[in-house]
Fold each of these.
Amino acid sequence: MRLFRLVPCAALAVCLTTCLTGCGGVDGGVRVEGAAATTIPWTGPVYMTDWYGRAWQRPKEVYATWRISLSKLTWRDWGSPSARATGVATDDTCLSGCPDGNDHPPSFQVKVVFSGLVKRGNAAFYSHAALTPVHPPAPFWIEGNDSTDLDVPDA
């Protein structure tokens, strides 16, 4: 009687072993054809944030720092790793003294470069601003504000 029980169990074991090893066997691996997939270039809106945390695209006027405003900006290469502009920097706090009171704070022509693109969701933000005078030397009141980090929203 034991033999009658042993034969079906053995047959079942052989059948299971054959089925399981047949399913997991190597058949030559993955076959790769053609060139590797390339990354899709990112496109989307690009912004900069001003001193007050507002986002702008190609601003004509903007407060770069708490003391310096930029105006009459004409942009080139917006959206590239470095956006360039020319415009006017103004000492809004009259640190250097306003010659005509607060009516005409001192200003000078500058070249502006925004750089350091940081991607946030479906948009990107410039994280750095640099100002250089069109006609050097720069006035003393721009020192320390000629290169500054810009706010970038959290992810």
Note: The chain has a mean pLDDT of 82.
Amino acid sequence: MRRNRLLTSAAVLGAAVALGPAVPHTAAASGQNCSYVASGQQPTLAYGDTGAAVRQAQCLSNAWGGQPPKLALDGVYGTVMQKKIEWIQTCHGLPASGVIEGRTWHVLYHPALDCYVPYPS
């Protein structure tokens, strides 16, 4: 009986080790390294806006890995940033408006580990 428990435990442990990399991990909040504005300061941002809040959104969007370009932290909401925000919104099932508001701020602070929507070329 004891031997069966040991074998079962060993099998479960072996499976957990083997499957560990395949199990999705939760993404940590990415705001910890972006401190241009307080996390509670989340104004609506759109193409053409400038300032510290835009820089915060740029920094947060850079937590996304893969093909999306890293944005320059210049505080200017330009076309490259708009394209990236629209892609991030699509990844989270939000309307791809390019406007950063409450729900988009939330996903910027809590990015998905993976997005299965290809980044537009």
Note: The mean pLDDT is 78.
Amino acid sequence: MVCVAVLVVASAYAVPHRRRSGRVRVRVRDDDRRLGAAELGGELGARATLVQFSSAFCAPCRATRRVLGEVAEMVPGVIHVEIDAEARLDLVRALDILKTPTVLVLDAEGRVVRRAAGQPRRADVIAALGEAV
């Protein structure tokens, strides 16, 4: 009986969690938050910047790096910046990054317009860029 209860509780958490993971969404707390070259360790893209927070042993981070790199190559004026979350805990705390990979989509002025926790799909990243550009 205990095993069944644990399975039900685990399923109640896992199903909604999987549905949300990787979705690109707007967060109210990100309103008017801007990141610049000092925080990112490099210049912003002319049209938009894809910022990825990663950790060393994160398998979805490698796949996310590949997807964001491909999108940045496809869209002129868009760059991909990867930040090691462990090395930049100050920025992780300030931006309320809870898991890796987390992707922030910045417009040309560095304003956070979208965010995704988990591995985003290429189509979702391209759609989020439409708002930033």
Note: The first strand starts at residue 24 and ends at 25.
